[in-house]
Amino acid sequence: MKKQHKKVIDFLNEAGYAFGTNTWDNTVKQLEKDDGDGTLATFNCDRRYRRNIISIYPSFYKETKKDQVQALIHELCHFITNDMRQNSWNLREGVLVTEAECNRSWEATTEWICRMLWTQMKPNSILQNAIKNYLK
Q: Which pLDDT value is given to residue 25?
């Protein structure tokens, strides 16, 4: 399990350059037991203190490497969509979210996705290399 956990950390560090998480405090937690609903991993982002936590369930390691890397990329995508999620939570809690804030987070998220796709379409991009290394 330690070797697999290190492989996850190595992938997230390498892929972090593509997602913009490489300058943040990133933690990978290995959870002791599954949550029972088939979740492989979870993501928590604290933008104020620039911290990310990805928690890995034991069932993650029972999946194929391809499914594992897809799950990790999915969790990293939560980093990109975090502002929009925060707006949703604020609305749910009755916190005023202005139209300008909604538009700002929508445009910022769209631009982030656009730039990431553009840079990762190149041969031997950071993310492509990280995926190749993980699937070895």
A: 93
* Per-residue pLDDT at 121: 82
User: Angle 99-120/126-135 helices, nearest 10 degrees?
Assistant: 70
Nearest partner of 57 among 129, 119, 8, judged by Cα: 8
**pLDDT < 70 regions, the chain:** 1
What's residue 42's pLDDT?
95
pTM given for the model: 0.84
pLDDT of residue 117: 85
Query: For residues 82 and 104, what is the distance between their CA atoms, to the nearest angstrom?
Result: 13
Pure H helices in the chain? 2-19, 65-92, 99-120, 126-135
Q: Name, in order, each residue with C-beta under 8 angstroms of 84's C-beta and a sequence gap of 6 or more.
A: 105, 106, 109
CA distances from 58 to 31, 61, 72, 101, 122 (A): 7, 6, 14, 38, 34
The Cα–Cα gap between 38 and 130 comes to 25
Rounded Cα distance between 15 and 38, Å, is: 24
